[in-house]
Here is the input.
Amino acid sequence: MGDSVRNILISLLTIVGISLGLNGCSSASDGALTEELSAGVSHTCFVDGMGLVDCWGSNDYGQIDVPDNLGKVTQISAGGDHTCALNDEGLLDCWGYNDYGQTDVPDNLGKITQISAGVNHTCVLNDRGLVDCWGRNDDGETDVPIGLATTN
Here is the structure.
């Protein structure tokens, strides 16, 4: 990344209360290190070292309205206009825009170990190395290849 782009990014993050350091990001309000950072189409979210989530940016669909009952969050993924958070028990919660079912977390996914929110779909990887995706599927984005899918 060029110096001018890096300086602009640091300035923008400082304006919203985040300062970059050599060891990651820290919240200006409490000094807790940021563990996870994810930028969506028009919003951004982070998880601090205590597992708390904060989001900023567009809120047209409630994508930055962080639910109170998430528990200790270990991963965050900001999608198009939705957000998903994974807690330390492997439970997933998603909120925001849901016209394509991208925030409707399916049952029986197993213990989730990784999450990724796309523009209008969401995917997870579980502890058995299997993948599941749901939401908009105009271009095959939720068609997980046989052998990787949680349901074949």
